[in-house]
Amino acid sequence: MNTMVRNLKKVENGIDISLNSRYYCLIFKIIKLKIKSEAMKMVHKKTLDSFACLMQTNRYMQDQMKDWLHKYKLTFTEYSVLQVLHQKGRQSVQQISKSVWLTSGSMTYVIDRLQEKGYLSRSDCKEDRRVVFVTITNAGKELMDLISSYLLERISTLFQQTTEEEQQLLIHILHKITQNKLTHT
């Protein structure tokens, strides 16, 4: 039986190995594990590098937006609320909160500031007193039209060295990432 095992040839993963002894078989398994381990390290490194690059880019973009919006005396959060109202029309505070990922308590503060600036107005819901609707005013619409053209110029300069195909690929990748929500925290 031992002679048969020693002379047995095994093909695994396209590599022909001779099993002259258990020693060679063990070495082969160790090499295979080492290769797999190194490949996993490379995958993890690329994943972490991708994540770090994404986070750096996100921070850079947020800083750029902050600088650009400072010209209009708006914070990014205020701009986000106005953008939702400009695109979707009248919304409840809860609907806006979901769109811009803020708690309703934080949203109340932002809405107060925007209302003081004259960019939006509030109205109570007749069917449910707990619900408050928010609407962008004409002054808010004019501001958003002005900001939109300004931001379009600035954002275009950020992407001027990329092709349409690269931009489409970026959109595709970012959508894949956001669709792959973590289920464990």
TrEMBL record:
PROSITE patterns the record matches: HTH_MARR_2 (PS50995)
Lineage top rank: taxon: Bacteria
SUPFAM superfamilies, per database record: Winged helix' DNA-binding domain (SSF46785)
A Pfam entry, by short name: MarR
Domain spans labelled HTH marR-type: 47-179
Gene3D superfamilies in alphabetical order: Winged helix-like DNA-binding domain superfamily/Winged helix DNA-binding domain
SMART domains assigned to the protein according to its UniProt record, in alphabetical order: HTH_MARR
GO molecular function list: DNA binding; DNA-binding transcription factor activity
Name of the protein: HTH marR-type domain-containing protein
Organism: Cytobacillus kochii
